[in-house]
Amino acid sequence: MSETPYPQHTALSLAASGVPVLPLRRGKVPSGNCMACADNACGGRPNMKTPGLCRCPAPCHAWAAATADPAVIVSPAWAAAWRRAVCVGYHPGGAGLTVVDLDDADAIAWARTALPATRTVPTTRGEHWIYRGAMRSVNGVRPGVDIKSTMAYARYLGPGTGTMTDLPDAVRALTVKKPSPVRLTAVAVPAGGRGGECPHRTPAYLDRGIAMAEQRITEASSAVHATVFRTFLAVLSTHGRCGCLTDAHVARLFTAAQSKGETARHCTDAWTNARTTLGL
User: What is the model's pTM?
Assistant: First the structure.
């Protein structure tokens, strides 16, 4: 019997340690969707953020296809992907890990002063710092620094050196976005409103409506983009034509949206799209 080919051999070794793996082809990218799963027509893998009913046996859904089951790794459905593979990827979050991907020398220098030491793996241009514990993945948390954990994959580049330590609060804090200053000149209600006190709502009613809109956004547990747009649409449909909205009201809505991870640009786009929808 022929020897198990690399990188499949590496994948089996990692899987034996409970690390979910997947084949990566040239360019460090996973296998593309098969015909049945193209454009996510299948509904997605069951362990993706939006659960679906797909049971495609191929490594067809990037990080969500990662597995630690050796029977799947050596299955005929994965054979073609291994033949094209140039390296092994793994799902850090699925293994209870977080990878701080430091992309250059400046990022490494920053990490050495800002983060506790842990297991380190050299990469082509920088280093992977691997911590014990999972969190959400976010790219670009600072220049040259990405966080890879849940719903993401990382390239396996060897066991690394050093003792792996617990995921520190300093890494978790990198993904907490502070609200950006609101560019009110870009989002103010257009001219044409009559200004002054709203002719059909009291100031107290308006303040209560803004507070309810803030709450709707901050309590959203999913579909944040859609919730922000619908909330902006509701506020503008009630108060967008009478001129009662002030810069302070708009700033409160934007701050609520940014506390949920929305960017200032998305807030501006959502506000503009809501105005366009209503013909303001």
Answer: 0.62
